[in-house]
């Protein structure tokens, strides 16, 4: 059985705002393909102030889907539509005291129902912009669609690449067989053959959860006549600045702490910090930095920096 | 009130007599059965006795046809991989769409290695089409593997007949009988079944022990090679505790065979009648006229199984479900899908599986508990109106899926 928090259980056993709201003027019907759950959210919005006066849900789904729906209705009541739109799926999960990785999609469904209902109220067409697949990496909650898309977009050809770009496979490594299978298929589709790394060489280049050894002094850019350290840091700051609006939209932010060779140390703050999706966020930041700098870099949470090189 | 355990197809309680039988093997009876001295010799004798008990329950002709393994999955893998090794020129496997993952995932993996896997389809009651099967049998087939009883619906398959058909076509026949052994009588010496898998913990033995039945004379290639244990067919020091426990459990299963097929079956029928009488829009899945005596699988339409299980669990009732959410997988049960059960019902399937330890009082308590739980969840369902399902539920509620 799932390891549900007490709050999840409480909202499942005693759901708030179950049923459709009378005189609703906003309806959002969404479903999660990954488990077959579906949710109808009905809102009663005060037209002048756009304040949500009442919210109700009807859910076909499991315990955490019902709890997420219940939590969502509690969270949106009394908020204006614009305020409500700032609620992220992580906020829903946090409100419930966390959800198991396999169940995070329940909170995503909640957020999407809210977006759909508000679009409905405003007479807009809501389009879903994300697709979910089977969970591959349980350590970092990365699904198949994400891995496949990243492999396609970046022509990846090794497990190390996949881990560097998405973080998938960077934890317990049990999913490496699954990642290899996806890699083989995607590489075959572009006319290449997957070649496994040498035995024992595998771990090189993988973003370590806890870096074991300090890296050698940076020999990268300057030696190759590319960017000076100052220039590099400037480029990195620019990239982070560009990503900031997206992070802020989710209630978080990123801050550059240090650059040490190919290791870039950052702090995730706000909603990003401690978020189960932090790894994905870091993966996204890293991908952008690799593209812009044209070299391989690792983005490492400052908290995971080895003590030995602190302050170097 | 004590909790009610109706999830015996998942695993069973170790019978107290089995516990008593294995206790000495944790302490004074620690010898290695292969050793010559008294310490080992006594244990060796206990294994022989256990082997005979398994032989009796299966109706096997020879005790040497019993190979102890670590679990049902190991027996399944050993059987299929052995057939492929023994007949390397044969590259086809016949199985069914409703097998346990122990067979299906192995076959899918073999398919990726170049084998052709034919999966027999089932009809809406979970029954196979034997004409389709007959057409597929050929000298290209290395092995047929068909479960004796389905773990979710309890539906029984005509494995004895299918084994004869296989033998007539000169093809090996294996059955995953993990759910059937101990619940229905069998006499393997009268059948053409060449290999059979069973698992101890499904019949009140401890976990970690299984058996591969291998008919004498059937070509065999071991999965584990090494020592001479199990006559060189499954190397590795014997799990004496598990094996002794399984022997005792088989003895008890044989004693209770009639009880299982009369009293337990009657309790199951009472549970089915009681629930269906009180809950509208619910139906039995599988083939009710031909299923295990202990298994009842009901689809509750328009609600989801995990939610039902959580509410049952709150009242101390243990069952299981074919909903996607209970497994963390993408799809609702492959068995329900294969039978063409509509999506809004497949997610709401609940399996009640009984054992000889269940009582009539327990069954009445479950019959009391289920209807309000279903009603409570339907009240939350977008497919359900004030007094029943909304009109054209699939059209009236058509969410955007992502």
TrEMBL record, chain A:
Keywords: 2Fe-2S, Iron, Iron-sulfur, Metal-binding, Nitrogen fixation. The keyword Chloroplast does not apply. GO terms for biological process: iron-sulfur cluster assembly. Residues 135-185 form the BFD-like [2Fe-2S]-binding domain. Fe cation binds at residues 35, 62, 106. Gene3D superfamilies: 3.90.1010.10, BFD-like [2Fe-2S]-binding domain, Fe-S cluster assembly (FSCA). Coiled coil: none annotated. Residues 236-300 form the NIF system FeS cluster assembly NifU C-terminal domain. [2Fe-2S] cluster binds at residues 137, 139, 172, 175. Binds 1 Fe cation per subunit. CDD domains: IscU_like, NifU_Fer2_BFD-like. One of its GO terms (molecular function) is iron ion binding. Residues 4-125 form the NIF system FeS cluster assembly NifU N-terminal domain. Pfam families: Fer2_BFD, NifU, NifU_N. Its cofactor is Fe cation; [2Fe-2S] cluster. Belongs to the NifU family. May be involved in the formation or repair of [Fe-S] clusters present in iron-sulfur proteins. This is Nitrogen fixation protein NifU.
Automatic annotation (TrEMBL), chain B:
One of its GO terms (molecular function) is pyridoxal phosphate binding. Pfam families: Aminotran_5. Its EC number is 2.8.1.7. InterPro entries: Aminotrans_V_dom, Aminotrans_V_PyrdxlP_BS, Cys_deSase_NifS_bac/arc, Cysteine_dSase, PyrdxlP-dep_Trfase, PyrdxlP-dep_Trfase_major, PyrdxlP-dep_Trfase_small. The keyword Iron-sulfur applies. It catalyses: (sulfur carrier)-H + L-cysteine = (sulfur carrier)-SH + L-alanine. Its cofactor is pyridoxal 5'-phosphate. Residues 4-366 form the Aminotransferase class V domain. SUPFAM superfamilies: PLP-dependent transferases. It is an enzyme of class 2 (transferase). Homodimer. Belongs to the class-V pyridoxal-phosphate-dependent aminotransferase family. NifS/IscS subfamily. This is Cysteine desulfurase. It comes from Parathalassolituus penaei. The gene is nifS.
